[in-house]
Amino acid sequence: MSIINYAAKVINFKVVYYGPGLAGKTANLQYIHRCLPETSKGKMVSLATGDDRTLFFDFLPVSALGVRGFTTRFQLYTVPGQTHYNMTRKLVLRGVDGVVFVADSQWARLRENVESLRNLDENLKEYGLALAAMPYVVQYNKRDLGPVAPLDYLEYLLNRGARRVPSFEAVAVDGTGVFDTLNTVSRMILVKEFGQAQEAHS
Amino acid sequence: MKAHDVVIHEADATRIDAVLQRFLGDSSSAAALLIDRSGQPLAETGTARTLDIGSIGALAAAAFSSTAALAQLLGESEFSVLFHEGVRESMHVSTVDEQTILLAIFDERTTIGMVRLFAREASRAIGVILEETRKRPKRVGALAAPLTADEARRASDHRPA
Ligand SMILES: Nc1nc2c(ncn2[C@@H]2O[C@H](COP(=O)(O)OP(=O)(O)O)[C@@H](O)[C@H]2O)c(=O)[nH]1
Ligand SMILES: [Mg+2]
Q: Which residues have CB under 8 Å from A61's CB, separation 6+?
């Protein structure tokens, strides 16, 4: 649910990083926060437990260049992945414009990925939203660890059929795939909001 | 629970600002922030020192929505006010409408009773304005035409320094 403010010349979008606990959602935001220049980011807020597990959410506002004199601000959020925090996950999804599903590539974690994706579907439904109809990308994280499932298999499990979307391999802790993921979902959000002009082909 | 788009045109912003200004005067609060329940700030007034509006919006909306969820667990329809008392400054958050909350920051120059009273009045006035903004066209003027591929690319090109 974007917010356009013609007086402040600001357009706000909300992006939620979803996925099972420990998949690397927080690591994505931390890398983005670490690497963006000061002028393109706000403060990162993390509501975490003592042992660094996300308790409520992480929050980081970022912006690239604006559009036609408007600042376009993407408010990045993560959810807590642990199953029993569903109430909080639902609250964070409120007003979401785009979703990044961060999957954990390790064999041992495949079932959690599938369950988390199903949970995302259910929670979106409560807001009258559906993944198939919104800007959405999948990130296969922790590619540096072993043993990880092959890409084909992950795609088969998590990204097929009518809602096949862009997907990325990632190692969130060293930044591999992190900006590709963010930029792609950002672009999908912009195009959904504003439409994209047909380019003349020569 | 379907979310609605929010658009604030310049004339609406001016009207909202006038209500917030009046609220500050009447209640002697230091600052007022209008926040969408998804966490995004819609308007602010009176922030003499520079506050981190983005973080405040995200955290206030989260605090408010978790108290609302708590209320449901306890069988209340909603706790409509959230109040935090600090050493020097206090914070009062109240419902404007289904989608919006009003946050006031105040100190010992006023009382929670005054803030609550005038927040209720301001919320009603802002609610009426927001109701109208939801009926307005979302993309006008500079934003009416679709983006070119280049515009979309530049606005989504986040880059490490
Ligand atoms: N080796 C490796 N570790 C990662 C990667 N991404 C995240 N981690 C680590 O995995 C743990 C959980 O990551 P975190 O971002 O907190 O997961 P979240 O629960 O999804 O937010 C942390 O110790 C991270 O440092 C990755 O791509 N490779
Ligand atoms: Mg986390």
A: A41, A42, A73, A74, A75, A76, B54
